[in-house]
Amino acid sequence: NFQSQLTSMYQPHLQDPTVVVSLVSASAGVYVSGEVMRPGKIPLDRPMTALEAVMEAGGFTKFANPKQVIVVRNEGGKNQRYVLNMNDALSGAESRAFYVRPYDVLYVRQSAW
């Protein structure tokens, strides 16, 4: 592994030949804003659906409209916009998972009531 490779490479130059490698944070992430409890950047450390990203952001606020979750994705230098209805997944109805990609922006709209 990377840690043992570094240890063997630098062993002649180190008094204590112990090297510890740790990942502080993943650079790629998605941004979740709007009617979620904790808006901000969600690290993408595994394949993640849009619903999972919303849950990582603390879930929907009581003012959220789960039928209106906007995903903005840069594809080939142009912004593509997807509107997701997460009510089906939340109610247990069969729905196709929408996987987020690095640097996607998710915006949860406010309910119109």
Care to describe what's here?
The protein has 113 residues and is of the alpha+beta class. 19% of the residues lie in helices and 31% in strands.
Summary?
By secondary structure, the protein is an alpha+beta fold.
Tally of DSSP helical segments: 3
Largest sheet, described in full? 5 strands, mixed
Q: Class by helix and strand content?
A: alpha+beta
- For the residues shown, what is the average pLDDT? 88
The strand line-up of the biggest sheet is 2-1-5-3-4
- Note the gap between the termini: 55 Å
Helix content: 10-25%
Unreliable residue runs: none
- DSSP strand tally: 5
Rough outline = elongated
Order of helices and strands: HEEHEEHE
Estimated radius of gyration: 20 Å
Strand % is: 25-35%
What is this structure's SSE topology?
Elements: H1 2-10, E1 29-34, E2 40-43, H2 50-56, E3 64-75, E4 78-84, H3 87-91, E5 105-110
Properties at a glance:
113 residues; alpha+beta; five-stranded mixed β-sheet; 3 helices; 5 strands
